[in-house]
Amino acid sequence: MPVQLLKIIEGQSEIPLPSHLQKENLKHLQEGCDHTNKYIQGVVTLSYPLTKLRDGKDFFKIVVQDSDNLGSQINSINVFIYGKMAEDCAKIIRQGETFIAAGFKVIKLPAAREDGRHDCHLEVSEEAGSVIYIYTKPRTTAASETASVSPKYVYTPLNRLKDGTVVNLYGIVKFFKPPYISKGTDYCSIVTLVDPSNVKLTCSLFSGNLDSLPKIYKVGDIVRFHRIKIREYNGQMQGITSGGFASLTFDGTIGAPVVPRTSSRVYTFMDEEQKTIEELRIWAASNISISGSATKLSDVQPMLFFDLTCQLVGKAKVDGSSFLLKVWDGTKCPYPTWKVPVEAKDLEGEKVLLHQLRNLAVDILVYDNHVQLAESLKIGSFLRIYSIHVKQASADNEDVSHMEFHLHGGTCYGRGIGLLPESNPDVKELKEFLESVNLTDRQNMESTCSMDIDSTFGNVTDLELHLQRCQQLSVTVLTDHQDLSTTELKTVTNSTAPQQYRIRAKLRTYKPQKLHQSVKLHCSKCKSLQEVPDRDDFDFILHGSASTAPNPELYNTSWYESVTWTTQEQKQREIAIHFVKHDEMLQHPEDTLIMIEGGTLKEIWKLTKRFKCVIPVRSTEDDLELLDLSAPFLLKGNVKYYGCKQCSTPKPMKNLSSIAAEQQPSWEPTEIAQVLGIELLQYVFIMKFTLVDETASLNAYLFDYEKFFQIPASEILTNNFLQEKMQMTMNTLCPPGRKLGELPWLECFIKSYNVRGAMENQVYYQIFDTTIAEDVV
DNA sequence: TTAGGATTCG
Question: Where is each Telomeric single stranded DNA binding POT1/Cdc13 domain found (predicted)?
Answer without folding.
Answer: 155-285
